[in-house]
Amino acid sequence: MPTVKRDTYTPDSLLSVAVRVFNERGYDGTSMEHLSQAAGISKSSIYHHVRGKEELLRRGISRALDELFAVLEEPRAREGRAVERLEHVTRRTVEVLLAELPYVTLLLRVRGNTETEVWAMSRRREFDQRVAELVKQAAADGDLRSDVDARLATRLLFGMINSIAEWYRPERAAHPGGPGGPAPEAGGAGTSSAEVAEAVVRTAFAGLRTG
Amino acid sequence: MPTVKRDTYTPDSLLSVAVRVFNERGYDGTSMEHLSQAAGISKSSIYHHVRGKEELLRRGISRALDELFAVLEEPRAREGRAVERLEHVTRRTVEVLLAELPYVTLLLRVRGNTETEVWAMSRRREFDQRVAELVKQAAADGDLRSDVDARLATRLLFGMINSIAEWYRPERAAHPGGPGGPAPEAGGAGTSSAEVAEAVVRTAFAGLRTG
């Protein structure tokens, strides 16, 4: 029988627990009972905070989307040559992904058919399209190579960025070289958010090859 | 009640159905009953071909792994400068991913705890490590930029490659500009396997930016 603790949750701290459980079990595989067990409070206590698990999903995804769309409003994303704006958006998107890793992971894994999931997928496409417009403008300016289709370039860029969610572990970055845990996997250990963002920008825009 | 047809399956055609169902429902979410319904033959007919669903998983994953490891044995993957071998392996890995899309997708989604899944993840790591060695050698030769960590570069390269499985739809490539279906998404429509492979090589090695 799980220990039931006094409900001292804030909206943010309860959301944090719920998003972790969604990412571990999948949204469809998560019940209010699972959330109750993970939070250590009763289901009725959770219903005191939210109407149900879909509201937690919506809040978790909103947090990721709000941060991502805010990047597009930053001055360096709005002013200057398209290719510079694109590089800024790429760098900042990686930084948001790493700073808000559980929330962006939740967004990236959305596949389902609830109203919230359909909305999330549509907002995610909207973000991708905003970036795709930058890619097209940069290509029209002659700043991107013309022998890679702009739509395909956008896909590959997001492929590289989004895949980071599959291997990046922030606790490694926080404790580089620290004791314990399994052997570090390639590129995961001791790599800061800014380093990963810079590596993505260099690789995607300048390429890995010298000369 | 599903129509039960005469069992005319070969090992390959039954595997093809099973892998499609695994990718749609997830391996854990797939029962022998689901496989029986999708194949239109009885469960006992399926047991005539295989001992159970884990054998189908193992065969599906083996098909992907055999093709991927075969790339590493090709002459252009074994002879010449490391950076050239790495580019060849990158191009051919994309081609194998697209030619064997359902099987490689199954491999990439493996997460679980059965013996077969643990084996698959270990073989996949082995493949990644073989490529990581090429990256390190190419960096040591001075052919890769030194300001992106080799392990991180390997991660980003595989991130770009593996993400293709999430959006590439072969039927679009087979019927470019054909009628019907939803509006094509970025980079997915009418793009051949060789075009995608070339775009990945150009982006990852030479970068998107001109000059």
Protein described:
The structure is a homodimer of 211-residue chains. With 211 residues, the first copy, chain A, is mainly α. Chain A has 2 domains: 40 residues, Homeodomain-like (Arc Repressor Mutant, subunit A); 148 residues, Tetracycline Repressor, domain 2, CATH 1.10.357.10. Chain A is 69% helix and 0% strand. Chain A is built from 11 helices and no strands. In chain A, α4 packs across α7. Chain A is elongated and about 60 Å long.
Record the SSE blueprint.
2 copies of one chain form a homodimer.
Chain A (H helix, E strand, L loop, with lengths): L10 H15 L6 H8 L3 H7 L3 H21 L1 H4 L3 H18 L1 H9 L5 H26 L9 H18 L2 H5 L18 H14 L5
Question: Can you tag this structure with a few keywords?
Answer:
homodimer, 211 residues, mainly alpha, Arc Repressor Mutant, subunit A, Tetracycline Repressor, domain 2, 2 domains, 69% helix, elongated, DNA-binding transcriptional regulator, AcrR family (chains A, B), KstR2_TetR_C (chains A, B), transcription regulation (chains A, B), DNA-binding (chains A, B), HTH-type_TetR-like_transc_reg (chains A, B)
Largest sheet of chain A: none
- The N- and C-terminal alpha carbons of chain A lie at a distance of 64 Å
H and E order of chain A = HHHHHHHHHHH
Q: What is the name of the CATH superfamily of the largest domain in chain A?
A: Tetracycline Repressor, domain 2
Kindly report the average pLDDT value of chain A: 89
The domain tally of chain A reads 2
Briefly note the structural class of the backbone of chain A. Answer: mainly alpha
Oligomeric state of the chains in view: homodimer
CATH architecture of the largest domain in chain A: Orthogonal Bundle
Q: Greatest chain-chain interface?
A: A-B, 45 and 45 residues
**What is the CA-atom radius of gyration of chain A, in angstroms?**
20 Å
In terms of per-residue confidence, which ranges of chain A show pLDDT below 50 for 5 or more consecutive residues? Answer: 172-186
Kindly provide the name of the CATH class of the largest domain in chain A: Mainly Alpha
Overall geometric form of chain A = elongated
- What proportion strand of chain A? under 5%
